[in-house]
């Protein structure tokens, strides 16, 4: 008798619950399918924070790259709005990826190389933020937090090829998740463990204890998939344990006011930018209050569907169809959308830099990775992909530097960031994108 004949989904759940009146969901397994399927108060240094920020369709070629290399560069035309943060931003130009003979997928290959170190369309690898979260995100309420501003729960963050970290598209729901009933203010004089958290923890413990017998009934593929699932549950259990402990005081923590009415969620760029401003503030406060040390922001998907209110042409369509202005040297409508994304990134940096921590700011102990999918949106090339890092990673990164690395792989930035947050890693990437060369000029 096959596993699919022995086990029905209801039977599995009933067996795992052991008769208790609790409910625990399971991932969709093959056996259910047919054959087609600075310093803290204690004196310890403030912990480093890592974040990613992604926008689709990059910048206009020749208008974002600084002319000078090294320190004290001047922001190029398209990045001028970021000038107030020049001394806290590193810009990396000339970077590309190596396809190793694999087909290029214009909107996927670039992000794959930047986030997974691999160019395959569906790499069975953890994203760089998940690897970093394994190193710095284990002792916070949320291992990582993900948001998306274009109305969909899109994400580039994943534990593996089958376990993703979906984004929250609603600022109000995000606020409730972070600062709702289960939030413990680290600066409050009163602390009482939340009974709801206590019950949830006991439920997860009972499920974990029964997993061994259950897994004996499964095939190899389902065992692998369920092991990933229970690993995620164990991570959640660790986070719940933290919520049963009194949090350490954090002077910079200020609970933000609940957002007012959020903008409609969808493809209208004005609405997405309004919601991004809310997300930026909430993320900054969540980090300052010790709720997480890792976050991910998707302003748009790679094939950005942003459009003006009442317009039908999207940002993505315009990159293909709008002509280049002979005098300006770029596509004017495309350029306008790209400028909106620059302003959005500026809003995030402003939110993090606006939270003071001792003699520095929250941005100073953060390392925020800006990335996109293409070097030249009109042709959807994967050469000269714009990349930036912002923040000093708690003193581990030198900043205010333009690194020109013509023809080098984008994975050099990923390796640099992993080393900057303290990971003991000497190589990263696969195939032609594997590198052992961090950008030593930006490592402190």
CATH fold topology of the domain at 46-170 and 264-442: Alkaline Phosphatase, subunit A
Spans of at least 5 consecutive residues whose pLDDT stays below 50 are 1-6, 8-29, 32-37
Provide the CATH superfamily of the domain at 46-170 and 264-442. Answer: Alkaline Phosphatase, subunit A
DSSP strand content? 5-15%
Q: Mean pLDDT score, rounded?
A: 85
Task: Please tally the helical runs, counting DSSP H or I stretches of 4 or more residues.
Answer: 12
Q: Major sheet: order of its strands?
A: 2-10-3-9-8-1-5-4
Feature tags:
444 residues, alpha/beta, Alkaline Phosphatase, subunit A, eight-stranded mixed beta sheet, two-stranded antiparallel ribbon, 12 helices, 10 strands, 9% strand, disordered N terminus
Textual characterization of the structure:
By secondary structure, the protein is α/β, with parallel strands linked by helices. The protein has a domain at 46-170 and 264-442: Alkaline Phosphatase, subunit A (3-Layer(aba) Sandwich), CATH 3.40.720. 32% of the residues lie in helices and 9% in strands. It contains twelve helices and ten strands. Helix 5 runs parallel beside helix 9, helix 6 runs antiparallel to helix 8 and helix 9 (269-288) packs parallel to helix 11. The protein starts with a helix and ends in a 24-residue tail after the last helix. Residues 1-6, 8-29 and 32-37 have low confidence and may be disordered.
What's the gist of this structure?
The protein is α/β, with parallel strands linked by helices.
Q: What's the SSE blueprint?
A:
Blueprint: H1 3-6, H2 9-17, E1 49-54, E2 70-71, E3 89-93, H3 109-116, H4 128-136, E4 145-148, H5 171-179, H6 195-209, H7 211-215, H8 220-243, H9 269-288, E5 294-298, H10 315-321, H11 332-353, E6 356-357, E7 360-361, E8 366-371, E9 387-390, E10 401-404, H12 411-420
Parallel strand pairs: 1-5, 1-8, 3-10, 4-5
Antiparallel strand pairs: 2-10, 3-9, 6-7, 8-9
